[in-house]
Amino acid sequence: MTIPTLAMTGATGFVGGATLQLAVAQGWHVRALTRRPQPDREGVTWIMGALDQPESLADMARGSDAVMHIAGVVNVPTRAAFEAGNATATSRVVEAARTAGVTRFVHVSSLAAREPGLSNYGWSKARAETIVKASGLDWTIVRPPAVFGPGDTEMLDLFRMARRGVALLPPAGRMSAIYVDELARLLVALAADRDATIGQVYEPDDGKPRGWSHRSFARMIGRAVGRSHVSTLSVPAAVLKAGGRLDRLVRRSRAKLTPDRARYIAHPDWVATDGACPPSDLWRPELDTGEALAETVRWYRREGWL
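Given the sequence above, the corresponding structure tokens read:
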């Protein structure tokens, strides 16, 4: 029996790492792009290279049954850097797939692509989606909402604040969320699909109708860390954006809260679109969000992060 081969970018990252692990467990051989040497791993061929090195992308795609593009940038200082890391990089991965004769292409985007005028990040993710849609490949696009789980650093500060009984939050709004292992399960299922999901854009989530208010999600995290009550404070959009300008001024290229990121965070609606969930016979969320948050907390504590 022939072992299917999956070419993957972003395999050393948060979402990619979970997806790599599950793909191998389900019988795939993964050809994974990496910038740095990695330990030998059964079921994985590490391809040294980067998104701006077309020859390494060609090597990654060669002999594969599907290409999955997960890698991208979320916090860089300029519009040009977002374009290079998200749009231009995607065009190179698409070209590598076409050259290798691989037709199945799974692209991981973001809900931010729905609002290209809001931030450079969203603009670059929308540009990447346009490139994929025009590729001529058998593509599927996945727009994850906020992703949490073991290994995540983006939400770690929120868990740490909740442990202390207080949480600083974005302005009033709603969001969807998804556990990283649930997202990985969807991505691996899509890699194998050759039917109804081709040409579709999906916005998966944890199954919570209308998503979560920022306050309710913070309080769920509070329960996961053992806090019966978490006091929440919504930071006004103007203050958030001023903080982005200040952080950029002080830390320059190392800034975490840039003006671009502040505009993205302040948007009131990051809820997955009703009706944009994948077909239920292919995938549906299985793990309760409370338990998924608790598992995340257990991992953080084992690793000494919390």
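The radius of gyration is 19 Å. Try to locate this feature in the token string yourself.
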